[in-house]
Design a protein that fits this description.
With about 170 residues, this protein is mainly alpha-helical. Among the domains are: about 1-50; about 50-120, Orthogonal Bundle (Arc Repressor Mutant, subunit A). It has six helices and two strands. It has helices at about 1-50, 55-65, 70-80, 85-95, 125-140, 145-170, and strands at about 100-105, 110-115. Helix 1 (about 1-50) crosses helix 2 and helix 3 packs across helix 4 (about 85-95).
Length: about 170
Amino acid sequence: MSTRTRPSRRRSSAASREVEAREALIQDALLAGRESSTAGVLLHSVIADRLGLSSTDVKTLDVLLRLGPLTAGQVAQHTGLATASVTSLIDRLERRGYVERVRDAGDRRRVYVHARPESLSDFEPHFEGFVKGLREVLEGYTDDELRLIAGFLRRVAELSRSEAVRLGRKGD
């Protein structure tokens, strides 16, 4: 009878070690995510400061460049910012020449915010070293690993956007 008890204890002990090892990996990934997020926020803050902008201004410009023209309401949706904050942000970016407001030809009441890519050349020198380094890091991965990384980053970005919207609503 004691022979039955020992193997189940070993299995239980092995299963327990597997659970602990997995938890350690998850904790390591969470910590790495925090490190990456903090480093990214600090990098964008330094770049924004050098350009006389806020990091929110810089990231909103990125949203407009990636998604194309958006209404102020759509900018609020994609950033999680309050509509009043978005209006002030657009005003600042328009004064600096980074965006322009364009009335919809089909519905003159609707106004779209367009990024002006030609005005963003002063951003490039600040990002080129990081982009070059990031490309070098990514070159070290296989195609399958790159697909996995891109999928993971998209899921994390969606989670971040959802949380920003959820937390933004709590303040209303």
